[in-house]
Amino acid sequence: MRKSLIAAALGLKLVFASPAVFPASTSPNAAWMEWKPGNDVGNIASLQRGAANFMGYCSGCHSLKYVRYSRVAGDINIPEEQMEKLLLLPGTKKGDYITAPMSKADGEAWFGKAPPDLSLITRSKGPDHVYQFLKTFYVDPKSVNGTNNLALPNTAMPFVLSALQGVQEAKFRTVERAVDGETLTERQWDSFELSSLGQLSPEEYDAFVRDTVNFLEYVGEPVKAKREALGIWVILFLLVFTGLAYLLKQEFWRDVK
Q1: pLDDT one-digit tens code per residue, 216-231
Q2: Which residues does residue 170 pair with via DSSP β-bridges, in sequence order?
Q3: Which of 90, 133, 171, 178 could form a disulfide with 190 if both were Cys (CB 3.0 to 4.6 A apart)?
Q4: What is the C-alpha to C-alpha distance for residues 239 and 233, in angstroms, rounded to an integer?
Q5: Rg (Cα) of the chain, in Å, rounded?
Q6: How far apart are CA 15 and CA 52, in angstroms?
Q7: pTM of structure
Q8: CA 205, CA 168: separation in Å to the nearest integer?
Q9: What is the pLDDT of residue 30?
Q10: How far apart (Å, rounded) are the C-alpha atoms in residues 80 and 174?
Q11: Distance of alpha carbon 60 from alpha carbon 150, whole angstroms
Q12: How confident is the model at residue 97 (pLDDT cuts 50, 70, 90)?
């Protein structure tokens, strides 16, 4: 089942493939807390790639229980034939909500807690947090699953994207600071270093993560792009109406003055 999902994702990416059109808004050498995806939920090609990424690598554990397959396909212009062939999980129908095949009991048994639904993850945590989370996994022999995460320390989630990004090690430095007359030492992140390469280059992996986060941001508010586009016309209307109202007021008050 896992192989079929990955194959479906890769197939959808080939059908709708196009280069990423927005870069990261900060340098990779900046502090990881400053990394931002630079999302654009109006970028249909990015949303299509993000849908393929989610269905191929996330949908086995995580659900999107507030959106239906048909709604996603309609909003991001995926033909029905492609949706049925490449998006639908086995045993599901186009009108179904996107739910994960993993049961809550299995999730708790395997990971210590059930994987959360991701429908509103970017609205509750913000797209920056999700982007940083997917980019800051690192090797940690002391953890249960062998990896840890800077954005969410001691996360129960294993790094399922390591085959794409590669395996990276985190370099830390020791910093001393004075607090209430005492000198305290703390460990701060310095940089990441790839100990083994993945299937994607660092630039390709960044684009993969951005597309995935972009898709999750769309899922959190499917009408966001339309709302923002409509808002421009509403503002223009109000400006024109204000101008007409002012001219009308001037005409009415001309005789009074």
Answers
A1: 999 999 987 787 777 8
A2: 192
A3: 171
A4: 10
A5: 23
A6: 10
A7: 0.79
A8: 13
A9: 56
A10: 55
A11: 24
A12: very high
Which of 154, 165, 155, 173 is CA-nearest to residue 194? 165
User: Which tokens in the block code for residue 190?
Assistant: 């310095």
Which residues 6+ apart lie within 8 Å of 143 measured at CB? 154
Write down the pLDDT at residue 225: 74
- Is the CB of residue 146 less than 8 Å from the CB of residue 156? no
- On the CB side of 231, how many CA atoms lie within 13 Å of its CA? 6
Report CA-CA distances (Å) from 172 to 70, 139, 150, 159, 230: 46, 13, 11, 20, 47
Assigned token pair, 39: 């999302």
Q: Which residues contact 1 (CB under 8 A, 6 or more apart)?
A: 60, 90, 101
How far apart are alpha carbons 189 and 32 in whole angstroms? 9
Residue 233 has what pLDDT? Answer: 82
- Checking if the pLDDT of 103 tops 50, the result is yes
Backbone angles phi, psi at 170, to 5 degrees: -95, 130
**Is residue 165 packed enough to be buried (19+ CB in 10 Å), middle (13-18) or exposed (0-12)?**
buried
The three-point CA angle 143-149-155 to 5° equals: 60
Half-sphere exposure of 170 (CA within 13 A, CB side): 20
Q: Which two tokens stand for residue 123?
A: 């609205």
Distance of alpha carbon 20 from alpha carbon 207, whole angstroms = 6
**Using CA of residue 79, residue 81, residue 87, residue 92, what is the dihedral sign?**
positive
pLDDT at position 56: 92
Phi, psi of 94 (to 5 degrees): -65, -25
